[in-house]
Amino acid sequence: MSTGPDIRRVGVAGGGLMGAGIAEVCARAGCDVRVVVTTDRSRDASRARLERSLDASVARGKLGVDERNAVLSRVSFGTELNEFADRQLVFETVTEDEGTKVKLLRQLDGILPDSDVVFATNTSSLPVTRLAAATAHPGRVVGTHFFNPVPAMPLVEVTGGPETDARTVERTEAFVTRVLGKEAIRSADRAGFVVNALLVPYLLSAVRMAESGHASAEDIDKGMTLGCGHPMGPLRLADLVGIDTLRAVARGLYEESGDPAYSPPEILTRMVEAGRCGQKSGRGFHSYSQQHQ
Ligand code: CAA
User: Fold this and answer.
1) Backbone angles phi, psi at 156, to 5 degrees
2) Ligand 1 atom 12: residue of nearest CA
3) Is 230 marked active-site?
4) pTM above threshold 0.85
5) Which domains does the chain have, with CATH numbers?
6) d(CA 81, CA 11)
7) How many angstroms does the Cα of residue 261 sit away from the middle of ligand 1?
8) Which of 42, 145, 187, 281 is catalytic?
9) Under DSSP, is residue 95 helix (H, G, I), strand (E, B) or coil?
10) Could you give the CA distance from residue 129 to residue 65 in angstroms, rounded to a whole number?
11) What is the three-class DSSP state of 293?
């Protein structure tokens, strides 16, 4: 069995904001990364997302052009899950929907029967225990919650359910800290783990404040950046997370906990229906130029 630091062949299922970010940090750490998405279109979008992020790092002077090209050469993109057959660790980063995640994990079971391969689910609101229980080897399923933007945020929450092998948690934590250079915190398998349990009610309070006309989006954000020293205000952060993702996460937490603090305000649904999904779609509570998407 490989230890965490020995893991070098990584799979990423899903190439959205989180998937592309996780692929980037793994490739920057020297891993061979295979990203699998469902359509040719999302494959192209995912590759473009990774290229944009690397180019931004080059423009900031954080990455040389040769290194950028080397990172890109370590990432391959495909549309068939069986391209994961030789992977040692697979991150599942598909949409925050239990049925979708369970279906994917079961498909991965068929492709990776060796119970030594770690399945890491990047959920931020679904219980790892339930996702693991739906698979053939619950002992190898672990939660790894990365934060957006993945290359910039140093934290990963690592969560094992009651059926997760202690060794799986240790290997995963060793991988994210020693290979990726992130900081890890462990959380029990509780709704929202540590960070979202605290963050989501705060973001939703800001959404309700804007919706009720208590203050403008600009002033709410200004209040929290200048008044409390946060790097960005809650509505800009909601835009960064994605309005659709925030709504899905809040729904999951509300269903799990029954706590009204997590109940997503209707305005989030209207924004999603209008295509205002935040920074990635150009508009949310604020507007964004294409270079930020
Ligand atoms: N990729 C790589 N590095 C990046 C980056 C990116 N996309 N964006 C910023 N950085 C790096 C910069 O290179 C810079 O690094 P140095 O300090 O080493 O020079 C640093 O981050 C600061 O960047 P900037 O000065 O350009 O910009 P900034 O000061 O406005 O910081 C930010 C940008 C890091 C995004 C900052 O605004 C921030 O920390 N915001 C809060 C983000 C946050 O809270 N994320 C969590 C979201 S919740 C979530 O993801 C979980 C969930 O399930 C909902």
Assistant:
1) -135, 130
2) 152
3) no
4) yes
5) 4-187 (3.40.50.720), 196-280 (1.10.1040.10)
6) 10
7) 26
8) 145
9) coil
10) 42
11) coil
Cis preceding-peptide flag for 149 (omega within 30 of 0)? yes
Distance CA 122, CA 10 (A): 14
pLDDT tens, per residue, the chain with 293 residues: 566 678 999 999 999 989 999 999 999 999 999 999 999 999 999 999 999 999 999 999 999 999 999 999 999 999 999 999 999 999 999 988 899 999 999 999 999 988 899 999 998 888 999 999 999 999 999 999 999 999 999 999 999 999 999 999 999 999 999 999 999 999 999 989 999 999 999 999 999 999 999 999 999 999 999 999 999 999 999 999 999 999 999 999 999 899 999 999 999 999 999 999 999 999 999 999 865 55
C-alpha distances in angstroms, 213 versus 171, 207, 209, 217? 48, 10, 6, 9
- Identify the DSSP state of 260: G
**SS3 at position 210:** helix
Vertex 244, ends 241 and 245: CA angle to 5°?
Answer: 45
Q: How far is CA 5 from the centre of its chain?
A: 21
CA 230 / ligand 1 centre spacing (Å): 12
Contact residues of ligand 1, CB 6 A cut-off? 53, 57, 60, 62, 124, 147-149, 151-153, 196, 199, 231-232, 237, 241, 249
Cα angle for residues 19, 263, 96 (degrees, 5° grid): 20
Rounded CA-CA distance 241/237 in Å is: 6
Residue type, 134: A
- For residue 103, the CA-to-ligand 1 centroid distance in Å is 32
